[in-house]
Amino acid sequence: xxxxxxxxxxxxxxxxxxxxxxxxxxxxxxxxxxxxxxxxxxxxxxxxxxxxxxxxxxxxxxxxxxxxxxxxxxxxxxxxxxxxxxxxxxxxxxxxxxxxxxxxxxxxxxxxxxxxxxxxxxxxxxxxxxxxxxxxxxxxxxxxxxxxxxxxxxxxxxxxxxxxxxxxxxxxxxxxxxxxxxxxxxxxxxxxxxxxxxxxxxxxxxxxxxxxxxxxxxxxxxxxxxxxxxxxxxxxxxxxxxxxxxxxxxxxxxxxxxxxxxxxxxxxxxxxxxxxxxxxxxxxxxxxxxxxxxxxxxxxxxxxxxxxxxxxxxxxxxxxxxxxxxxxxxxxxxxxxxxxxxxxxxxxxxxxxxxxxxxxxxxxxxxxxxxxxxxxxxxxxxxxxxxxxxxxxxxxxxxxxxxxxxxxxxxxxxxxxxxxxxxxxxxxxxxxxxxxxxxxxxxxxxxxxxxxxxxxxxxxxxxxxxxxxxxxxxxxxxxxxxxxxxxxxxxxxxxxxxxxxxxxxxxxxxxxxxxxxxxxxxxxxxxxxxxxxxxxxxxxxxxxxxxxxxxxxxxxxxxxxxxxxxxxxxxxxxxxxxxxxxxxxxxxxxxxxxxxxxxxxxxxxx
Length: 606
Ligand code: AGP
What we know:
The protein is built from 20 helices and 27 strands. The strands form five sheets. It has an eight-stranded antiparallel sheet with strand order 3-2-4-1-10-9-11-15. The protein has a seven-stranded antiparallel sheet with strand order 5-6-7-8-12-13-14. 2-deoxy-2-amino glucitol-6-phosphate (AGP) is lined by residues 297-300, 344-346, 349, 352, 395-397, 485, 602-603. 2-deoxy-2-amino glucitol-6-phosphate binds at residues 297-300, 344-346, 349, 352, 395-397, 485, 602-603.
């Protein structure tokens, strides 16, 4: 959840470190810091909170240097204060770290016993002391670094400066992503391609266990055994334009509005528009498949639940969806004839990665629905199903969510055709429904002004309930998650049929109830639930479509009429209203929409 950058070159480095850290700020913003080699000495500048606080420090105490490292932090060990801010220094060693060192306590005790003093509560500082201690035995920097890596248990992506080795940055990765960027007379190290994006589009994705020595002429890469290896250089798309906010106030607003295009590009990758047939990459035999196990976290988990409804309904194929952090520790009964699908925007979420690896160890075929196509998960599965929505910077997932759902829809139709539960004509009809979805999403986004008005009411609420049935019960979870993670208003998503089993006790005339109910096979039941809550004073926001608006019981506080859509794609069309509602509530409350408190975009620690 932290972001790291390193630059070794011959140009002024500080501005560029800051530029890169700003692109990494979505990974964590509890503190920020840089270190650079100034006249042979390593100097640090650190600040609590956002990068702008670090910039203020640099105005007071400039760093004029050509080689340096930088870090944005999401606190794991130690409070988010300056003392725990990276970079951390011990003797000649200054470094930044993303990950968690699981054996840091015993290492720290050993180092303290050897007389070393610590200035922070972090696990990271232990690494700096270890490298410094190895240097003190006379080892060269690279050997001291390798000896240290061999002692660490846990996850790390590291960038290291060594005093006296001015034209050198050391790096290593295990369990956290790290890339090398190739420049002209300069080299870069970063958490992902976005970090080095301002400087180069030539990227080397380090493998698990790799470590590297960079100078401004190039990189020496070594694998976990210490053997020198070559890793391929990839030219990554110039995603800089996708990263700017354009004329939107927030990345989240832009990304909500980017959804028609993101879903269109994603759907196009899974269908043949000319023949109106599905075209799922990966060559899986859905006919022989006995079961699908989906593992994911957060919004990606919710996309998986929507997938379950569609795949089981259409393809009569059993699907289980589980929260990865529970799944990985409960010894689930798995069978080799199943397929595990990891759902992950980042492809780096620690719990999802561990759950995926658990399934692979049980002999299951593996796939990932992922945005970051060079991520750890993407490199470990048998089949990669990319979403093509471009980099998602807002911490609250929107365009990645609907792109993930788009892949689930394509998978449901493809599996149904392969298993013979639908015929060619039905497949073609459903593919045409998919191709039409982006236009309907755009129409739903057109409801923004009315949603802004509703947001003014919701912003006053203490608690909000989201209800739905079928795939809309999953979307109710997503609506609640969006609202609480960016506006900090408590919200719960519930299967509407569960209302009578407890949650209805929450309903009073102060509680907004958002009911998601397109005119589908569940509509009548949802309409009954709507009457039940209104009878108790509940203030209902009824999100439906034209037919639903016509048949809705009277008395809703407001009815939001999304475009009519086939049940296959209604989750795509109904997503925009709940996303826009959450977004405008958060804006009204003055919340930090793109970087909500306590969150990070990619949870790469347990
Ligand atoms: C979504 O709005 C959240 N930011 C969060 O739940 C996210 O979906 C979750 O952390 C999973 O991330 P991933 O898709 O990168 O694995």
